[in-house]
Amino acid sequence: MTTHQRVRGPLSAAVARLCEETRPRVGQRAATGLGEVLDRLSAPLQLAVVGRIKSGKSTLVNALIGRRVAPTDVGECTKVVTRFRYGTVDRLEVVLLDGNKYSLPFTAGGAIPTDLGAPPERVSHVEAYLTNAVLRDLTVIDTPGLGSVDDDSVARTEAVLGTGDQDGADSERLDPVSHEAVAGAEAVLYVITQSVRADDRQALSAFNAATGNRPSGPVNAIGVLNKADTVDPDSVSGGAGGLWPAARVLATDQEQRLKPRVADVLPLIGLLAETSESGEFTASDAAALHRLAALDETTRQTMLISADLFTEWECEVPTDARARLLELLDLHGVRCALEEIDADPHITAGRLRNKLHENSGLSALLTRLNAVFRGRADGIKAAAGLASVAAVAQSCTDPSERERLHAAMEGLLTQPQAHQLRLLEALTMISAGTVTLPSDLLDEVLRLGGSEDFSERLGLPGAPVERLTEFALERAKWWRSFASLGATPAQSRVAHVVHRAYFLIWRQLR
After folding, report:
1. What residues are paired with 226 via a beta bridge?
2. At how many degrees (to 10) do helices 10-22 and 377-395 cross?
3. For 450-456, what is the mean pLDDT?
4. Terminal-residue alpha carbon distance, the chain
5. Which residues on adjacent β-strands are paired with residue 128?
6. Each residue of 358-395: pLDDT tens digit?
7. Which among 117, 128, 2 has a CA at the least distance from the CA of 65?
8. What is the spatial distance between Cα 239 and Cα 165, in angstroms, rounded to a whole number?
9. What DSSP letter does each residue of 349-368 carry, written as one string?
10. Is there a contact between 376 and 423 (Cβ–Cβ < 8 Å)?
11. What pLDDT digit, counting tens, does each position of 294-343 carry?
């Protein structure tokens, strides 16, 4: 079985065929680079979770995987990159900067140990192989945060996400810049808290290494407003109605500030998501909450004023049980659980866990993640692969090799079925600031490239096919006129792509 036959998706398969057909016609160095592209195309989608220190990245990783395996306390292991991959047996491998590797056991609780057995400055990254169904088609990469206690943590993040595995002879490796483009992650979750800081756009740029120095954007990036339970509804204009309405308003505001670097910003309470998904919430925890719910109202309200009062106030529920509840739920989660028990005094532990999941915001995030990442993995991987082929071509010292690779790429992009790659390229140009558009046209292009559903792409959800067909043709004509008459040269390039996208939708709808 050839490599491209293992690739899932027609676009990724087309890029794989390009690599396989071109490899025999280039030198060893370029052939090695194309081989790495092939390996990446046949691997699961690489999702990097990035953000500032203490933003809750590792908690989100645990929620995504459904297991409390990534340590969330600051320690040696939180200063290095950890890649969570599918494996037939759970095992942990520490990769040192000198290329040596050694295995470590997981803790008794199934987590990565805080002591990696070597100083962080000697560790390149950690590979965690888990028998986890989520990881069959998604490799999750946990990264040290921006603003870490030492700059080396961020440097190691960029090095690992940019250079990938370090096996192989140096003489046959690409130069660092080109190899970084070949081996970078293909999608990114940006974790932010409360408000977008003045330098957050620069922070996102600093993590372009996570996508191999291909600009992140609506094609491959989602923002997560974590710790939404810390939002004060009274401090958010238009946030009347409670915590979640306020959090959604704040997330929308952040989305506008970060646009077009991310597809969306979605609010999340990461701790509740982790606890409800990882199986950490037990019948004993539910029983402790039922006992708290039975306390008189004055005592309950007093205890919920602060974490100290919650654990130190004298009551029937043991202190260690309350401390555990704080660790699993924090005060907001405890309040949510008590409200659910008040509404249904006979609620079971399983039902209570489901309610905590509903209160975490994880379902909405997973739905969007599946739509933007998993649902479009073929296009994302193909676009990343094609960008990597371009990086290989750029590194070629032989002009004829470079020309051969460019001709192969152009040949692929002229095929009608590959037009989606042109649209992804246009979105990348917009997110990188190479092309600027008026806000209404920007929103239209982002919408057109933001879904696989025709009605959503056209901004007419639920409309009949006749209306969708008519509208697609209208917009195709408009963008063709804009490309010819009203656009700058850079805008015209994007406009022609958008025109073609609308035309292809019209043709498919007919």
Report:
1. 193
2. 20
3. 79
4. 38
5. 84, 92
6. 999 999 999 988 888 877 788 888 888 888 898 899 88
7. 128
8. 46
9. HHHHHHHHHHHHTHHHHHHH
10. no
11. 999 999 999 999 999 999 999 999 999 999 999 999 999 999 999 999 99
Instruction: Answer for the pair 320, 284: CB distance below 8 angstroms, yes or no.
Output: no
Rg (CA), the chain: 25
**Closest to 372 in 3D by CA, of 216, 286, 251, 264:** 264
Beta carbons within 8 Å of 156's beta carbon, 6+ residues apart: 79, 80, 81, 120, 123, 124, 125, 144
Encoded amino acid at 158, one letter: E
Q: Is 334 exposed, middle or buried (CB count within 10 Å of its CB: 0-12, 13-18, 19+)?
A: buried
CB atoms within 10 A of CB 154: 20
Closest CA to 178 of 79, 312, 49, 37: 37
Take residue 38 and report the two structure tokens written for it. 């092939």
CA–CA separation, 274 and 398 (whole Å):
52
In terms of Cα–Cα distance, which of 310, 308, 211, 203 is closest to 258?
203
Q: Which amino acid is it at 355?
A: K
List the structure tokens of 78: 């939180």
Residue 1 has which token pair? 């079985």
> Which two three-digit tokens encode residue 427?
């979105």
One-letter identity of residue 391: A
How many residues belong to the chain? 510
Reference 69, options 103, 126, 131, 112; nearest CA is 112
Pull the structure tokens for residue 185: 């992650």
**Please, which residues bridge with residue 188 across strands?**
48, 221
167-209 tens-digit pLDDT: 333 333 333 333 333 346 788 898 988 755 555 555 555 445 4
3-state secondary structure of 495: helix
